[in-house]
Amino acid sequence: VAALPQLVAAGSLPGYRRESETDSAASKSLPSPSEALCLAAVSQPLASQELLLNFFLALSHRNTFPPKMIRTSFVRLAVRPLSRRCMSSSVPIIPLYINGKFQDSKATEFFTVTNPATQEVVCKVPLATPDELQSAVDAASKAFLTWRDVTPSEKQRVMFRYQHLIRENMEVLAKIITLEQGKTLIDAKGDVFRGLEVVEYACGAASHMMGETVENVGGGLDTYSYRQPLGVCGGIAPFNFPAMIPLWMFPLAIATGNTFVLKPSERVPGTMVKLAELAEEAGFPAGTLNMVHGTHDCVNFLCDAPEIKALSFVGSNQAGEHIWQRGGKAGKRMQINMAAKNHAAILPDASRAHVTNSLVGAAFGAAGQRCMALSTVVCVGDTSEWIKDVAEKAKALKMGAGCDSSTDIGPLISPAAKKRVEDIIQSAVDEGATLLLDGRNCVPEGAPKGNFVGPTIITGVTANMRCYREEIFGPVLVCMEASSLDEAIDIINANQWGNGSAIFTTSGAHARQFQNRIHAGNVGINVPIPVPLPFFSFTGAKQSMLGDLHFYGKEGIQFFTKPKTVTANWNPDVAAGVKTAMPILGSK
Predict the structure, then answer these.
(1) Which has the least CB within 10 A, 95, 218, 249, 545?
(2) What does DSSP assign to residue 366?
(3) How many other CB atoms are there within 10 angstroms of residue 28's CB atom?
(4) In whole angstroms, what is the distance from residue 252 CA to residue 241 CA?
(5) For residue 24, how many other CB atoms are within 10 A of its CB?
(6) pLDDT tens for residues 419-450?
(7) Helix (H, G, I), strand (E, B), or coil: what is residue 289?
(8) How far does Cα 477 stand from its chain's mean position?
(9) CA distance 2 to 330
(10) What residues are paired with 525 via a beta bridge?
């Protein structure tokens, strides 16, 4: 194995065909070096398989093997669970993970996952059957009966092992994300890391579950409270953060004593497969974490299942409002994070260079597919001239496949997403706005079939235009103008969404005025994407959030637990006899 790169490069590996030799009957009878590596990995113990996988990824990075072979072998090694990694000419089918085991679904319908940079098929996702969905809930229900009574210290030890394994496998997870979702590798690592931080917070969940005590509240009575887990919880995750959003959900739920059933996005299932593998390796007991796949029917099942006591969701308003209404009728506790239109107010006293860099990164990074993307700028005074600087820097960004280390912006998730973004751009032109930078018809070198839209800047935008009324979810910056900070605040507050907002200024007074008056839940002062760290909570507001307890942090702990208050009397006054009046405990 150590000599394989040199042998392949020299084309002199006896007993193996060249990677490019696929036509002749003779060549088909011999394995290629990449196939030999895969076959060798299958026969090894778990630890050795991981070593071989990391070695293979290193070869991919050095371009030892042709790109098509790299993608095919990577899918087989990294996306499929370790127990099912084998050579096959068919497209890999993603498994379910129920009661501590990966299992093949009996589904007859599948969703096809494609690489958004190339349109090559990556894998197929089964739309789980009703019986399979119920078995996942049953497994979680059974596991809860014992997991809830495991000591907080032992739960934390499991989480400590889990965060260690995620950190060790960050490179593998990032490559899966890039393969399925399209974002650049460095952005994918950030995706994993922001989720890892929530797992780290979950390692200390016990201290945030501590209750309160008051002794002798009345006549020898003591009152104390503590927090208990809810039971089975569910999660529905989006495509844009395949690692971070699931890790916002199930680690904190499980650390507080619950069990979990997760539906990852059918567009990006591979990351969750790997996270489930790592959870098993970390010591999650069977049934504490379950993974199911599907689309509308799966979502409706999770909303309706009476065993599921709480449901977390991140995604569009259309889906979120449906889940809120359907799950609400079933009596579930819910946290629903939805669409956004995040604004930045630019004041003339701000640093022009910092504003330029911040807008380019926050508006166009991840191809704008972030619920905290800075998609709208409100220029106060003559700062509208600064947008020309933003356009110049945006022109220099390189579009391309996320696996290319020189790429700045990857593709959109699907051809339909690309068409929608381009339609919104055209609507802005039709409604009288100006295209300062047009990213349509973008065809990066080496990726002619990808779902690419380049950085786009629209100026002269008013509140009635479609490009402002809708969340675009693409690399598009919408520019508006205001004569004062007060007017800018009024414009921002009039928008229906309130995930985040930012101000760029060197004035403490203006910054304080902004943070106090703005309605958005996450506010940045000279910070373009103010996503709080996990010891706070992600406090989206207005139509960006349904529910009164937010993701992660102290509110996340509260969401996955319920308070119980106990009043105890160990010295009852039997001589007092029967009292039918309302007890007045604090009278003496």
Answers:
(1) 218
(2) G
(3) 11
(4) 17
(5) 9
(6) 999 999 999 999 999 999 999 999 999 999 99
(7) strand
(8) 23
(9) 58
(10) 503
DSSP 115-127: -TTT--EEEEEE-
Average pLDDT over residues 455-463: 98
Report the alpha-carbon distance of residue 232 to residue 288 in Å, rounded. 9
Q: What is the average per-residue pLDDT within 452-467? A: 98
Determine the Cα–Cα distance for residues 559 and 553; give it in Å rounded to an integer.
10
Strand partners, 117: none
| Catalytic position from the list 371, 379, 403, 442 | 371
Tokens encoding 83: 């127990």
Q: CB of 256 within 8 A of CB of 205? A: yes
Burial (CB count <10 Å: 0-12, 13-18, 19+), residue 154:
exposed
Mean residue pLDDT of the chain comes to 89
- The tally of CA atoms less than 13 A away on the side-chain side of residue 23 is 1
Would you call 584 exposed, middle or buried from its count of C-beta atoms within 10 A (0-12, 13-18, 19+)?
Answer: exposed
Q: Determine the Cα–Cα distance for residues 524 and 503; give it in Å rounded to an integer.
A: 6
* Percent residues over pLDDT 90 in the chain: 81
Rounded percentage of the chain residues whose pLDDT exceeds 70: 85
Among candidates 150, 194, 188, which has minimal Cα distance to 172? 188
Biggest distance spanned by C-alpha atoms of the chain: 100
Provide the CA 227 distance to its chain's centre, in angstroms.
27
Query: 375 CB contacts (<8 Å, ≥6 apart)?
Result: 340, 341, 342, 363, 368, 471, 472, 476, 477, 478
Residue count of the chain: 588
pLDDT of residue 54: 56
pLDDT in tens, 236-289: 999 999 999 999 999 999 999 999 999 999 999 999 999 999 999 999 999 999
Q: Alpha-carbon distance 140 to 129, whole Å?
A: 17
Encode pLDDT of 141-168 as tens digits: 999 999 999 999 999 999 999 999 999 9
Alpha carbon of 341 to those of 395, 458, 510, 565: distances in Å? 23, 15, 22, 41
Sequence-ordered alpha helix ranges (H) in 286-343: 296-304, 317-329
Residue 17, phi then psi, degrees to nearest 5:
-85, 160
DSSP β-ladder status, 221-229 and 561-569: antiparallel
Q: What is d(CA 2, CA 15) in angstroms, rounded to the nearest whole number?
A: 17
Report how far residue 95's alpha carbon sits from residue 103's, in angstroms, rounded to the nearest whole number: 5
* CA separation for the pair 575, 572 (Å, rounded): 9
Banded pLDDT at 579 (limits 50, 70, 90) = confident
Can 371 be counted among the known catalytic residues? yes
Rounded CA separation 383/352 (Å): 9
Q: Which secondary structure element, helix H or strand E, spans residue 562, and what is its range?
A: strand 561-569
List Cβ neighbours of 2 (8 Å cut-off, separation of 6 or more).
Answer: none
CA dist 86 → 36, 46, 50, 92, 358 (Å): 11, 14, 14, 10, 45
CB atoms within 10 A of CB 385: 10
Contact call for residues 447 and 118 (beta carbons, < 8 A): yes
What are the tokens at 550? 């937010």
